[in-house]
Amino acid sequence: MRSYRTLFRTPEFTPFLLSFATFAAAQTIGGLALGTLVFRATGSPFLSAVSMFGPQLAQLLGGAFLLSGSDRLPPRAVLSGLALAFAAGTAVLALPGLPVWAVFAVVLLQGLVASLGGGVRGGLLNEILPKDGYVLGRSVFNMLWGLTQMAGFATGGVLLALLSPRDCLLLAAALYVMSALVTRFGLTARAPRSAGRPSVAATWRTNALLWSSRPRRLAYLGLWVPNGLVVGSDSLYVSYAPGAAGTLYAVGALGMLAGDMALGRLVPPAVRPRLATPLRLLLAAPYLFFVLRPGVALSAVAVTVASVGFAASLVLQERLLSLTPDDLAGQALGLHATGMAALQGIGAVLAGTLAQLTSPATAMTLMAAGSVTVTLTLAALGRREERRPTVPGTRPDVLPEPAVTDQ
User: Fold this and answer.
1) Cβ distance 139 to 261 under 8 Å?
2) What gap in Å lies between CA 288 and CA 73, rounded to an integer?
3) pTM of the model
4) Calpha distance 71→334 (Å, rounded)
5) Per-residue pLDDT tens over the stretch 27-49
């Protein structure tokens, strides 16, 4: 599938995108409002960064205990319930006089319930689209995320100039409710993709199976670590340029949109696998420029160019799916989403700590240097993996695996 027209004629693809776009808009506006609220209350770059990206760190716990629900629960019900849970939590965050410890307790709970979202959405998209449409569909999904971020952060910046952060949080809560309604009435009720009930044991067993393959491990690490370190740099926009954070987030979303559009629509499938490493290097390299403490205009250019590199995730997700049985696709993508979110949260904590000890500009530069180092290391390990002898009777990139059953 190479045509947007064919893609949007696919039943349920449009309501799937609309429900996600509304949810993403709520996350974007709410996250910027919460980060601003915490920074105004505490003056701490560390607490501001963690308040915006802390839910992603908390997803690590959810991924360890809840992720089997990605394939074993009805997707429409999960996505509707997730949106309503975020609406309730965001409304609580808007309460006047809420102490900082309570803010982070709510952030933790939101991260736990969010751990199901990535796997359920990824698995549902894999069901809605034919196999040859996944990359194009996922690129549109990512482009929509970029557009929503761009519009959401720009709108959030304007709203914060006109309204209080608490008013913006209430607006975000209303958007979450809208997302739940679009999901409930726009998508078909589907049965779970995999038999058995979700459990901690099933989650751990399947996660262990997914992690047992060396090629999949390299794909997961490539998806998680370079991305997480760069998002740590992103988390410092509020403290680096308090008056222009919305602008930097918006142009970052614009760069992400451009990268996903080019990769999904213009790059031939045969070329895509070779772009994983160059795109990951592009994602980090422009942030090295922040050691010079550039002004807002030059910072915006650097952020825009760097964000094109987020398209590397499309290449690596395609590789991950090629290495994974269909009945585990939801949990495989959920493990990716959870691990990526957790590493982004860790990146935000690490970047906030470095900024507290040095400066936001220095911390952003150090995080970028770390991302470049990890990317080059993974590229070297990948080349070594390609040279390994193949077990007779197996594909060179897939290891033989036992079946996953409930006991």
Assistant:
1) yes
2) 44
3) 0.68
4) 9
5) 888 888 888 888 888 887 777 76
